């Protein structure tokens, strides 16, 4: 290239690029270290000196001190606090943290920072559930901070986190809230599920100020909220904020139909009690050994000491499964692993009859098909039933409790139907837990029903419900109505079973 060509090339370059400047930011650093103790102290609102003092106290109690002098502790703490403050904006939008230009960190540290930042205090969350997440509520956090002895900065951070996540979830109430939270905020599914439960309570603004409901803590409320979402939400969209529209309509319509057929409904339930009781207790006492499943053959075997079923009190049949099994002897001559002697035996009612009478009445929880076999003294033919690995108790009512239920069922069903009707009224739905306590749990407790007896009652309510048996001939969409009614009662059943002994 001659001199003239070079000058022409340089002139062209200056013409196009001479007036512009290309700037580069260069930042070189090692991945930042994250001290979990310092990070927890920063989240809790402690100052640098308070954190350093605690570290120094812990260091002095340790036999092998490695952290150094007080000044080094303070400098390290200040350095970490400075990093966390710079990272706070990114932590509020965790998706940006993976590509943060200033702070490089490994995946474990990034997850630690995000999970720690969005973890919440149960006592503080109990104060926020049911409230509107407004700026006015945020200004009132100083009272909450003083009441709970939690630093104000911590209260504000957790309030802001809840409000930030709620904006994402509440804009799409028909979608799976857990997926929305995990995708937008990079939280673990366990933590996202906790937020989904809390936000469900906030979305419907449940009234938790009532004295009877006030005894429920955050974990119990979240558990109850999950039951409502699971049984009454859209079955095709799990963990969405809205209830299933068809379920609300069907349960509301059933209030009119079932109010006219209350006596018939109770006769069906009572008949179920009587048939189960008569077939399982024709004698005063029958020995039923514990049942265990051999994992290799699937056969039911006898294990350990026998259980006794009494006929004149609440009937109970407990089916347990264990990995330790022994060969199955006849019931009239039980040989167990600890050589226990049966308390009493009866040949007039075989265990086959008991199991065959109970099996049709088992709740939907026994839907997982695992075949088990029981051989009795009166018959060498195995009796096959299907159960899963969970223990199930069938608790029947004695005559006195059955008579009490006979006189109280109408008012009890009225309360259940009122709760079902309130699903369509957002204002009334806010009082769901209070209504369940006052209209269902309190009447059942006045009849001295145990939790197991209550559970069996709801199980029978589900089993016997049939438009044909109840002569609900004018009912449209019968199959859908049956499914929605059973889902509604199952939701009531799970909530009652969980809080029955708490409230």
Features:
mainly alpha; 4 domains; two-stranded antiparallel ribbon; FIBP
Outline type: elongated
Structural class: mainly alpha
The rounded Rg comes to 32 Å
The tally of structural domains comes to 4
Helix content: 40-55%
Sheet bearing the most strands, described?
A: 2 strands, antiparallel
In whole angstroms, the N-to-C terminal distance is: 94 Å
- Average pLDDT for all residues: 77
Given as residue ranges, the uncertain stretches (5+ residues, pLDDT < 50) are 282-392
Identify the quaternary structure here. single chain
Order of helices and strands: HHHHHHHHHHHHHHEEEEHEEHHHHH
Number of helices: 20
How much beta, percentage-wise?
A: under 5%
Q: What's the number of extended β-strand segments?
A: 6
Report strand order across the widest sheet. Answer: 1-4
Can you describe this structure in just a few lines?
With 503 residues, this protein is mostly helical. 54% of the residues lie in helices and 4% in strands.
